[in-house]
Structure formats: structure tokens, C-alpha cells
Amino acid sequence: MAQHQQAQQQQQLLAQQQQQMQQQQAKIQQQAAQIGQMNQDLNRMHADVQQVPKLRQEMDALTQELALASGCLLWDALPGG
């Protein structure tokens, strides 16, 4: 009788441990999904940062064009221009 009760307690303990392991596994999977999302975000940010020099060059070129255009407009506005 005592052995039966002990076996039952061990079974309950095993069931609890199994449940805890399943909960931990679910938590780990959730964290892995979050890490995956963070990694994607980081990759996107890295790609954006890689664009900065190119965007800076484009901005410089546009600034030069604007300076030339405004210079031409000023020249045209001058008497006899």
C-alpha cells in the first residue's frame, strides 16, 4: 500500500516536472521568436545605415545643382544678364 502511494506521488511529481518543462519550452520558443524579430529589425537598420553614404552623395549632388540653378537665376535677374 505504501509502495502504491509512493509510486503515485512519483507519478504526480513527474507530471509536474513535465508540465514545467513544457512551460519552459514554450517560453524559450517565444523568446526565440522575439530574438528572430529583433534580428530582422537589426538587419533592416543595418541596411538603412549602409545607404547613408549613397544618400549623402545624392544630397551633395542635389545641393550643387540647386546652387547652380540659383546662381543662374541670379545671373538672369541681373540687368543685362
Give the overall shape, derived from the CA principal axes. rod-shaped
Percent of residues in helices? over 70%
Number of strands: 0
Strand content: under 5%
State the separation between the terminal residues, measured CA to CA.
114 Å
Strand count, sense and barrel status of the largest sheet are: none
- Helix run count: 1
Rounded to an integer, what's the Rg over CA atoms?
Answer: 35 Å
Regions with pLDDT < 50 over 5+ consecutive residues? none
Structural category is: mainly alpha
Write the H/E string, N to C: H
Mean of pLDDT: 93
Describe the structure.
With 81 residues, this protein is an all-alpha fold. The chain is built from 1 helix and no strands. The radius of gyration is 35 Å and the shape is rod-shaped. The mean pLDDT is 93.
Topology:
Blueprint: H1 2-77
Characteristic terms for this protein:
single chain; 81 residues; mainly alpha; 1 helix; rod-shaped
Short description, anyone?
Helices cover 94% and strands 0% of the residues. It has 81 residues and is mainly alpha-helical.
